[in-house]
Structure formats: structure tokens, C-alpha cells
Amino acid sequence: MASEGRIISIDKVKKELYDKNDVLESWCRGHLPEGFFMDTSVLMDFYAHVIDWAMSRSDHYLPNALNEFLDAREADAFLVAFCLADPVHRVLVTQEVSEPNRRSKVKIPDACRALNISCVNTIEMFRQLRETF
Predict the structure, then answer these.
(1) Per-residue confidence at 46, pLDDT binned at 50, 70, 90?
(2) Rounded CA gap, 90 and 44, in Å?
(3) 44, 104, 107, 120: most buried, per Cβ within 10 A?
């Protein structure tokens, strides 16, 4: 699916994956095509929109939760921004589970719901792509 461009990711995820020198990093280097990890530097307007949403929830989320979610070195908010840039053609895939009442962590599905971005888990992604094993 990666070779066909049916699934993609972002450079922030690459940075998180490629800093451990482990089996996952080795597999990714050997199997993911050039261009799989998309550049997020072009997303600043969308990232600003994600920041605005998160900060508007500062009465709910604890400061550490917001700081972690909005840390420019982390992937979560940029993943949301990447999908926000093209919500018709992009679906965010995560294993995180919505916890709208949680104050100590901004969960990706909750940000997606608030910003009208489609968000699914891995199994649902395979269903939507009509992949079988």
C-alpha cells in the first residue's frame, strides 16, 4: 500500500521512528518507498489552526497536556494538521482511543473530532481500503 501511495505518513513520524536504531526502524528503512514521509514545513497555517483549537481548550486540558501535544518536535498535532490540510482525501490512522474527559493528555481522536477530520484505527483503515489477509 505504501508503494502505491495508498498510505503515507509525515516527516515528524519518521523522526520519531528513526531515532531508536531498532528492528522497526530497520524494517521501515528497508520497506518504505522514497516520498512516504511527507514534508510538514508547508503546513504552518493548518498547524496554527490546530494550535488555536488546542489553546481554546486550555480550560479543560492541563498545561502539560497542551505543551506535549503542541511540541513542534512531536508528531501528534502535525498529523492532525496534515489531515486538516486535505480532509476530503486524508484519514488519520491511530491506535489512540478517544478520551474526551481526560485532562492530562490531548488524544488524537478528540482533536480530529473537534476539527472534523476522519480518524480510524488500523483495522478500520484496512476495512476502508478493502484489504484482506
Answers:
(1) very high
(2) 17
(3) 107
For Cα atoms 25, 65, 99, give the angle at the middle one, nearest 5 degrees: 85
**CA 111, CA 100: separation in Å to the nearest integer?**
9
30/130 Cα distance (integer angstroms): 25
27: exposed, middle or buried (Cβ count in 10 Å: 0-12, 13-18, 19+): exposed
Which of 88, 92, 67 lies closest to 13 in space, CA to CA?
Answer: 92
Inter-residue contact 60 to 31 (CB < 8 Å):
no
Largest pairwise CA distance in the chain: 45
Domains of the chain, residue spans? 40-128
Question: pLDDT band at residue 26, thresholds of 50, 70 and 90?
Answer: very high
State residue 28's pLDDT score.
96
